[in-house]
Model the fold of this input.
Amino acid sequence: MDESFKRLEKEFQVSYHKSFWDEAKIALENDALDNAFRSAATSSTKITVPNWDNQGLEEAFMDEAFRDAAQASETKYQASFWNDFENQREELEEKDAFQTAAQQIKATYNPIFWENANTELEKEGLHYEYQSAYWNEAKELLDKSDRRRFIGRWSAVAIALLLISLGGFNFDGVESNQNHVRYEREASLDQRLKSKNDNFFNIAENHQPTRNQKFDLVGSVKTPINKDVELQDEANNNEISADVFDQNKQAVLSHGETNIVAENHYQEEQLKFAKDASLKALDKRTLNNKRDSRSRISHLQQNERIQNYEYSLLTPIELKNRPKLNVQNLSVIAGFGFGRGYGINQNFNLPRAYLGVDYSRKGSNKFNRFEFGGGLGVKGLKEDGIVHEKRTVRYMENTNALTSWRKLKINDLIYGNLNLFLSFNIRSKHWTTVGVGLEKLLAVRSNMAYFINDTKTKNKVEANAIASDDLTDIKTVNNNWGVQEGIRRNDLNFTIGYEYRLNYKFSLQTKFNFGLFDRTDDDFYNQDQTFNNEMNATVGIRYRFFTKI
Amino acid sequence: MTNKTIGIWALCTIVFLLGCKKETLPDLGESNAPIYHLKGSLNGDDFVFDMEKSDISVNYGVEEINGMTAHFGSMEATNSGEKIKISVLANEKRVINNNFNVFQDQNIPFLIHEKGRVQFDFGGIGNQNNYMYLQDKNGNFVKTDVLEIPQFGKININAVFYDFGNNTFEFAINHGFQQHLLLAEFQVSGEGDTLKLSPIQDNYIDEWYVDDILVGTKALYKGHIEDGIHVIKHIVMDKDGNSAEAYNLVRYKGGKNFWTMKMNYLPTYEFEPYNFGRPIVSVYKNNEWYSTDLSTSNKTNSMSVTKINVIPNEIENKPLVGFDLEFSAYLANANATDSIFVENMEGRFYLGLK
Done:
């Protein structure tokens, strides 16, 4: 109390006068009140000593009163009091220690922290192996969420503007700086998350954050991706990041740029590693030369902003214990070209077309630059000059010579194809392919004309005349699909090709295909004995409509 | 892909498959080699007639050679104009038991025309020979009773008896085709103005004609006849339809038979009297015909025929007979100024039967 009065005296700058105390004494001398206190103190009611919370006790103005009360009252000590205190001693000391430590400790982040944390997380089962499906699901959610947010946001703006225009509101409301920044931050995140540009670090697509992950760029997604993760809450992540990093480092996402203020050795190491990684990558677009990278590092040290780090990691960096990627694709392929004729026209100018589906599987480990698979499809061939003519004369005993003939011209051939192929990634988007396949003749379109001379026909001829062709009995069948004679039914073919992958969906293909066997019966088609194997060159596209990892 | 989409695709596929024309390649049958062909040498040059050649035309049937029925078959190369024809004189009985009887033997001598000389005999009655005039090849009537026949065949004769009048009496005689199997000759007798006719061979179908008028169909004929010269013709037929005929002249005067003409061969020429079923080969070359019947060098030559096969050819109603043949022969032109030698001609040929 005295101290309090002294404090008050200082504050109010009032000189103490004895009369003050006399007046206070008079006020305090209250017999009734005194009696009440005495009777309360002598009553049989026991007062339990409460658990004192240390906090605020110093500021308690009732210390003196409680001391007096403590002196006047009697409280029996119980052993449980000490036990309770012992039970809470550790916690009390811990809290106290944490507080003290938090005030004193300056932690420096080291990547090994992550390793250790990672180890602990794995032990506890909190570390989720990254899978692309998570990212895809998250993207879906994001897209939906973004869509909802986008629609909601801009609907609100539109309504507001409408109201302004209709109601004459003088809108002066600008979102607070913080909100504006947050929206832009989210917008930039949208762009980054939706971006297919491999120029951004997208660990989700190219890496799995393993214990061997040497770096973790600020602002990237480093937490396990699952449905519960709200990736757009980057601000929280930043705050978490800030907790981990040195307090001197600040990572702020704004306008899609990564501003890194480097003030210590860790940042330099991180960027150096990233630079090394990009140099290992095949894509040389980034960091044109080491000089640039070094200058950037120096800029970091000078607290400069680094814009648009472009790291392309199209080819995954080889990391120890890197997990196997099992990429499987189903694709539709189609193309057209030209091939060699089988008949009179042996030029390489007859149309070819193909359509099919194929399955491919990417190799793993040291075979990760290979793809192998198989396909099924149909091929169409237009021909010109495959002509069959046959004439028979049956000499009769009655001296008649019955002449019959037929003429056949092949127009189109349709083959079914079953093939196996092996593709090799030369570099980046360039692939080469070799394949072998079986082709089976499915259909043949032809034009046919014939005349069959028999005794019935002969009756139409005048007596004593030699049997002659009756023109009314000549049959013509165009666009006929019923004749496949003289065409080889099965063939074995080989393919050499080149593929340029525009993206993970579309590819451009060019192929050269040649068959092993002679496709025409030269005797049947009245040809010279030539080897008419299939040879063609085509260009086409490939569309991967299903991918599984 | 929904069930509806699958159904649509399946329906389109079915329509496509059903709607497409699917006619298979027609079977033309197998070619065969020509059945009829001839090859040999003609004066040392290859002489081939092959129906595989596109310009070969074929003909066959029945013809008359000097009034006698003959089966023939021919091939003509229309491009070159060459022809070959084989004729076989019909046998005395062409049909035996409903079967065509074309060849009497496997080796058949060629028919070679030979001359003959006949004299008409009236028995010295009334010097009828002095009043007989016969028409020659120029159409002139010449007073003679001897007739020289140049070739085998059926000879039509026109005669006038000027003591009787100016009427021409026409009759025929067969030279080189003496009847052995089907005899149409007959006997003439009479009592008063009754004419009696009787065949020398019975069991046939008989037809009696007096002056081209059918007067009887029985074996024996007996009937009134007026005075004058009459031409009597007798036709006999057997059950297979084979027929033969014979002619004669008779004169009735004063109501009774005055004379019956007889024909006798004079010994001037020797000839083959029976030429039924003999072949004649003719080749048309150098714009004229050459044939074996005009060359006496073929007296020792014959044609070998085997594998005789009758083809009914009912659809066209033109039956024919096919046979393998082989021969060598001389062929002479009509003027006897040129000849060709066909050697080792062989092959398969055909003859018409109707």
Observations:
- Chain B has a mean pLDDT of 91.
- The longest helix of chain B spans residues 3-19.
